[in-house]
Write a structure and sequence with these properties.
With 280 residues, the chain is an alpha/beta fold. It contains nine helices and ten strands. The strands form two sheets. A seven-stranded mixed sheet has the order 3-2-1-4-5-10-6, sandwiched between helices. The protein has a three-stranded antiparallel sheet with strand order 7-9-8. The longest helix has 24 residues. 38% of the residues are buried.
């Protein structure tokens, strides 16, 4: 990986997007709670059961790059959605995950599924002291990552063979942007996502393979109460706050029936992408 002036400028643009989004968020958000923000959400990142009926489509793509004796480092492993299925397809997985709630979900799944070749590292990637592996993966972590260049360099430098990154076409909060604008009367600033990440890779001279993953439903909920809970989380509000009460008032007009549940009237599926590049 060769860092040039173009790479530094590409990273600066990424960091500036994250900074502007965070500035706006901090102006409107409620005081952050002391608890792990992933508490109550970690179950969304659970691995599939033994028959792998709900296997993440990225697993099959990553598997095409793996050898049976490989060590995979999963950066931001969450509840083990990728780490545990990949552990069945390689020699060892090192799962780096800072969230206690996510680690608890992953530890439970490791025990339930009888997996014995996953090592869980309770650190942020930036702070983690882990040996180099063969294949480093990073799934839906980088949207808010800053400074991005050291993070990217560490991904690259810790892979003997390959790095693979999964991101959506738009950031995970994208279907909540219109709700933010209705609530606060200001256009929502977006975090970077896959288009910006591809620009960043090209600016540092990385040639990558690009894979289109299946669309994922988004902005859909089993009932209005679930929509309100998720919106409060995504807009960084606290239940019962003035902003949360106002949100509860405006939310019904934003929802339309969808099968047995509801969805935002503007909801779009999330388009998934995977990029992978050789480090050899």
């Amino acid at each position: 990986m060769h860092i040039t002036a173009a790479g530094i400028e590409g990273a600066r643009k990424w960091d500036a997007m994250v900074y502007r989004e965070h500035q706006q968020t901090d102006r409107f958000r409620d005081p952050p709670p002391d608890a792990d923000p992933w508490t109550g959400l970690a179950w969304n990142f659970s691995p599939p059961d033994r028959d792998e009926k709900d296997l993440d489509p990225a697993v099959n793509v990553v598997e095409t790059y793996l050898d049976p004796g490989d060590t995979v480092i999963d950066v931001g492993a969450g509840g083990g959605r990728l780490a545990i299925p990949l552990a069945r397809r390689c020699a060892r997985v090192v799962a780096v995950e800072p969230s206690p709630a996510m680690r608890a979900r992953m530890d439970a799944a490791i025990s339930e599924l009888g997996v014995d070749n996953v090592e869980v590292v309770p650190e942020r990637w930036q702070d983690a002291d882990v040996p180099v592996g063969d294949h480093v993966i990073c799934s839906h972590v980088m949207y808010a990552t800053t400074p991005v260049l050291p993070f990217l360099e560490k991904l690259h430098d810790h892979a003997n063979k390959r790095v693979t990154v999964m991101l959506r076409e738009r950031p995970p909060q994208a279907n909540f942007h219109e709700l933010f604008e209705s609530l606060f009367g200001e256009e929502r600033i977006a975090l970077p996502a896959m288009p910006e990440f591809r620009n960043l890779l090209e600016s540092v001279g990385i040639k990558y393979d690009l894979h289109r993953l299946e669309d994922r439903p988004h902005g859909m909920f089993p009932n209005p109460e679930a929509a309100l809970r998720r919106a409060i989380q995504r807009l960084f509000l606290n239940p019962g706050s003035a902003s949360a009460k106002r949100l509860a008032e405006i939310l019904p007009e934003c929802l339309v029936p969808d099968g047995e549940g509801v969805r935002f009237s503007w909801a779009e599926p999330q388009r998934g992408w995977l990029v992978s590049w050789s480090t050899e």
